[in-house]
Design goal:
Elements (H helix, E strand, L loop, with lengths): L10 H58 L3 H26 L7 H20 L2 E2 L6 E2 L6 E2 L2 E2 L7 H4 L1
Antiparallel strand pairs: 1-2, 3-4
């Protein structure tokens, strides 16, 4: 029997939400850096760019989650054309504010590029590349003196 849709958990949603949490963690630092580089306009530029990045990751996860439940072929098309659509939305969002007095296009471009790449690289540490644990890695087993603690077997008398 052929698999035509994904009935499993939405791991892409968990990964995207984890990326958003990380973006919120670094947001104060990025906003302070933007304020230091360009005053209020720099801070507003960084906030706008960070918002674009977060929305981009969430839209990506939403597209995959919704279409995978319908058809894997549809999901493949949504990933390909969704990427192009999201690039177009980022272009439109930048184009709409490119003449605004508060925007710094170089700072906005740097924020979008560095934040996308930085968050993805940061997330690589936490993503399991295994079919046993798709999505985020499970917590590590407890260790004593660099040796994993093995679970104790249940005596057979307690099982019956």
């Amino acid at each position: 029997m052929y698999v035509t849709r994904d009935e499993g958990p939405a791991t892409e949603r968990a990964v995207a939400h984890d990326i958003v949490k990380k973006a919120l963690l670094v947001a104060p630092l990025l906003l302070a850096l933007g304020a230091a580089l360009g005053g209020f306009g720099g801070m507003a530029t960084v906030a706008y760019g960070l918002g674009l990045v977060v929305v981009n990751f969430l839209l990506s996860a939403l597209l995959i989650t919704r279409t995978a439940k319908i058809s894997l072929g549809l999901m493949g098309g949504a990933v390909l054309f969704g990427y192009l659509m999201r690039l177009g939305l980022i272009f439109l969002a930048v184009y709409l504010v490119h003449d605004a007095g508060w925007i710094s296009l170089s700072l906005l471009g740097a924020t979008i590029i560095v934040t996308h790449l930085g968050l993805l690289v940061w997330e690589l540490k936490y993503v399991a590349m295994s079919l046993a644990f798709p999505g985020l890695k499970p917590p590590a087993r407890p260790m004593i003196n660099s040796q994993p603690i093995e679970p104790k077997p249940i005596p057979e008398a307690e099982i019956n």
